[in-house]
């Protein structure tokens, strides 16, 4: 793995439990992000973009079945304990949620919000 690799996702699967049955929302995602790289994920509504992001951020409870690996700085985020994840979430990985009016302060420049 080259030194510049910061995020390496392999065969990520995410399934939601709805009334006792599991439904796959993310299926077999593989992606890599290197330093100084910007990756945009596009796709139709409901294809799993937000679920991918919330999985990287470790925002799902135990009812959500997650398979594969999310390697960030040589650690698999999927196997981190909550207190370990709390040191990364917000400090090293941030998320701006989908509703920009509640996620962003319109009085601040976007650069201030993301840096
Ligand atoms: N908490 C949940 N419980 C059950 N199903 C869910 C849950 N969250 C998302 N889903 C389902 O997972 C699939 C992916 O949803 P997701 O919100 O990740 O899509 P998206 O690509 O972000 O869509 P959009 O472009 O509309 O934001 C959809 O079928 C959605 O209904
Ligand atoms: Mg979304």
From TrEMBL:
CC per GO annotation: membrane
Similarity-based family: Belongs to the ABC transporter superfamily.
Every ABC transporter domain range: 27-112
Keyword Cell membrane: yes
Stated name of the protein: ABC-type dipeptide oligopeptide nickel transport system, ATPase component
GO MF annotation terms: ATP binding; ATP hydrolysis activity
Top-level lineage group: Bacteria
Keyword Transmembrane: no
Species per Swiss-Prot/TrEMBL record: Liquorilactobacillus mali
Sorted UniProt keywords: Cell inner membrane, Cell membrane, Membrane, Translocase, Transport
Subcellular locations according to the entry: Membrane
């Amino acid at each position: 793995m080259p030194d510049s690799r910061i995020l390496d996702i392999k065969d990520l699967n995410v399934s939601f439990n709805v009334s006792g049955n599991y439904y796959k929302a993310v299926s077999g995602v593989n992606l890599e992000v290197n330093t100084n790289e910007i990756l945009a994920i596009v796709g139709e509504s409901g294809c799993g973009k937000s679920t991918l992001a919330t999985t990287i951020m470790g925002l799902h409870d135990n009812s959500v079945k997650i398979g594969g690996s999310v390697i960030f700085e040589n650690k698999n985020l999927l196997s981190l304990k909550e207190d370990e994840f709390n040191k990364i979430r917000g400090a090293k990985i941030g998320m701006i949620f989908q509703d920009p009016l509640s996620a962003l302060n319109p009085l601040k420049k976007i650069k201030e919000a993301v840096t």
